[in-house]
Specification:
mainly alpha; 164 residues
């Protein structure tokens, strides 16, 4: 997507109800970290296609492993911080699930929109491209953001009360 924040909509919509099964903060990060390389290409720090290897399921899975490892190390290194921001601090399974599903959700959404993405690389195919319109994806992401914000209000309220 041209604006990575669009990915926060589906992340919130799916992440809030699944927060007991996956680490919510990791899931949010996983949904946007896939665009880290694309951002560097966009700003001419790196060269190549905007949607490169991280926009494949294989690349996203490897990135998910790196993200999960980083979160798990942070949870061990700074448990007090992770206890405050994480829905499942220290749960390796919840962090792995959040990392993989978040990165894969990103790849899936972008695969529908862009011709240069090859989600099943090394195969040069993208059967997801054009399965729905760009407007539908963007509108769906904005709608998901609204629903996700509404769904997260009780959780946010409880979290704020716990920190005071």
């Amino acid at each position: 997507m041209p604006f990575t924040p669009f990915h926060f909509g589906p992340a919130l919509l799916f992440g809030v109800p699944l927060r007991r099964r996956l680490d919510f903060v990791t899931f949010l990060i996983a949904n946007v970290i896939v665009d880290s390389r694309a951002t560097l290409v966009f700003f001419d720090v790196l060269s190549g296609r905007i949607h490169g290897p991280l926009h494949t399921y294989l690349g996203a899975t490897l990135l998910a492993g790196v993200l999960a490892g980083g979160v798990i190390v942070c949870a061990r290194w700074r448990p007090a911080v992770m206890d405050r921001i994480s829905s499942r601090p220290g749960s390796v399974g919840a962090v792995l699930l959040a990392s993989v599903t978040g990165t894969w959700l990103h790849v899936t959404l972008d695969s529908i929109l862009y011709t240069d993405i090859q989600p099943f690389a090394p195969l040069s195919i993208n059967p997801l491209y054009g399965t729905t319109s760009m407007l539908s994806i963007y509108a769906g992401c904005v709608f998901a953001l609204g629903l996700g914000v509404v769904a997260s209000l009780p959780t946010l309220h409880n979290w704020l009360n716990e920190t005071n």
